[in-house]
Amino acid sequence: MTPETMAGNRSYNRLGIGLSRLMTVMVGAILIGILVFLVIKGYKHLSPGFFLHNPIDLGREGGIFPVLVSTVLLALTSLCIAVPFALTTAVFLTEYTRESWLTTVIRFGAECLAGIPSIIFGLFGFMLFVVAMGMGWSILSGGLTLACMVLPTIIRTSEEAIKAVPGGLRQVGYSLGATKSQVIWHIVLPQARNGILTGIILALGRVLGETACVIFTTGISLEMPTSFFDSARSMSVHFYLLAREGISMDMAYTTALALMGMILCINVAATWLIARKN
Amino acid sequence: MQPLSNFKKIQKAEGRNRPRLFLIFGWLLLLPWLAGCGDARPAMVIAGSTSVQPLMEKIVDRYRKMHPELKINVEGGGSSAGIMAVITGTARLGMSSRQLKMQDEKESSLTPITIAYDAIIMVVHVDNPVNVLSREQVRDLFAGRLTSWKQVGGHDREVHLIIREEGSGTRSAFDDLVMVENKKPVDIHPFALVQDSMGGVREVVKNDPDAIGFISMGGINSDIKVIRLNGVEPSFASIKNHQYELVRPFLLLTRGALDPVAQRLVDYVFSADGERIMQEEGCVSARK
Amino acid sequence: MSVPENKPSNSLSRREERIRRILQLMALSSVSVLALIIVFVFREGLPLIYNKGFAAFLGGQRWAPTRGSFGIFPMIVGTIEVTLGALLIGVPLSLLVSLYLSEFADRKVRTVMKPLIELLAAVPSVVYGFIGVILLVPLVRNYVGGTGFSVLSASIILGIMILPTIISISLDALRAVPQNYREGSLALGATSWQTAVRVVLPAARSGIITAVILGMGRAMGETMAVIMVAGNAVVVPTSALHPCRTLTSNIAIEMAYASGAHQQALFATGVVLFVMIFCLNISATLFVRRK
Questions:
Q1: pTM higher than 0.80, yes or no?
Q2: Concatenated DSSP letters of C47-60
Q3: How far is B195 from chain A (nearest CA, A)?
């Protein structure tokens, strides 16, 4: 290596590091900018009243209480339906079946479905639940549709988490005389808890941010839902409608901020739960 | 001694039997409880045109205050979506801002109730110097034959066209009333931007100095400027006197006869209250 | 004589069997539901593609569903252009940022940036779309040209949206590269930049490819943000300033009122999307396996 090459290398080095540093600063600035923008525009209406009062005049004033409740109900419904099925499927696929072409096909199918645009699920849910099965625009239709949407994701992440549990641990269980289900229940699942939880949190984030799907299956009613067959408006839908129709930019931003705060809290809680286990 | 009981003893000692089971499956228990304690009366769903929607939302809001025990939900989606919803039974009443297509057998099976007459307003940015356009000029603008605002009396700037999606009643009405030449339909320029609601069109026109779009009269506010079509200012009076040309009916659609609850709501729409709300929204009531 | 020792194991194996049955049932249900979705979409969509003709559907440039024209070529081009645009903007940026954070930044910067990036993954897509409408679209309109609603705007917004995904996964992949790779390279006289780009980056290749594929999938599937900034005109965009409509936007815009052949055409669009994602996943799997 000649001195010229080395000098050339050094300047490339500086250039490269400098460029990547610049890009990082730029990206950081964009990200912080978005956050700051939302906070500045949205904190005006942020108050306990915002969360507890009903909307007045289609959301121009007042609060978002029914929207908040609808969002929680929708999220709970979809997870209540998706999680048990996804977990049992993941457990069954990993622990109770041998690796064969069938399991590969199922796994690939789940992988593909996890990547399918959510609007397809919306189309499916609208045609099947809302129209064909007569459930109309309801929390049930939306919950079922969203459950179908996150099912592949939770199956996949749970499967990976369960597979990651070392075989030795299972052997310990068996040697102590436990049955298969006991080994899974008392040893494997607790060990895989972090991965499974991460998958569920990911799914929850996706459910909370979903808009198009929800509009077409749960509708846009601002009334407080009193049954699963009621139409309801989730927070992302409320934000979308307020912003796009120009009803109230301020309230829209505050709703967006509240939604992001919610997602943030869930992420933080999940991180805390995972850390506690370790 | 069963080796199994060793394991069970270990588990009991750690006391971790119940909570995990409950955590995974207990959520399912929530569902029937929530469903049971709720009010399972089905809501009356009114769905359809985003032009009729603001009007119906106000009327239903006022009606609900008088009858708080009723559950009425107003959904959007566009005129064709509303028609579809009534046909499939997803909605009890449909809202449409266009006439039913009589050649379509499913559409013609519905019963239309004309509740108001509404004007299609051409809107531009508040700073756009153009105030008056003829119907032919609007047609040529949207067909792409006129491409610069200069050609209609404005600045030398490119015209940005904003239209609605195909399922929109306002779009259908616009196609039928404006985009015709010698009884033959004229295609809208393919580069026209599509917004999927009236509010969306208004927002775009509000922010783009070169944009022109069409909305219903109820959507007018101080953010945008109204074009006088053929010199006629769209207003309650000019609609009633048939001076303003682009007028289309607001319809409520039903399949078969109205049940008592729906009938009472429709009666309210035609009441003096309803007429007043319509006037606030800028439509002429069809009340006799 | 009965075998008391057997009784407990009999009831035990019966219990085990019952558990197995329940799990099998539930697994079967989930798998059936997933299969049902795929079957439903294909069953509704394929007949239309068959009737109208493969070439006419995919290559047809005229989309006028209420009048019987079902050419989705403009939408296919729209999806491809917008996705490629998003990758063009998102991937180099993500790679540079993850390289910097992984190789050159000190720990403090990393601890600040990482949660920030994850926070941005929590922003709903409608919020991105809306920020695009009020900040980006006027910028493009005033400083670049056109109406502002364009392939360019959609690409930029999508590019920003996929940054958190690609950065966080790439960062993990880069951090996972063993330290002795770097030490060896530096010992041979390479600069840290050369080390990062020629040694660490290739070593983390499979993780980074995964990240890019995931980002690509997200960009391809994004609906709301694109509807808000892309203009939704059914044209084949030949310039970045032209408006465009993607396959997903098309479904969302027309879904509520489609019926009959129109509805089938939307499912057929779903079939096309399925096939695209399928090919994407297969090539990703093959690529990873080859490593």
A1: yes
A2: HHHHHH-HHHHHH-
A3: 10
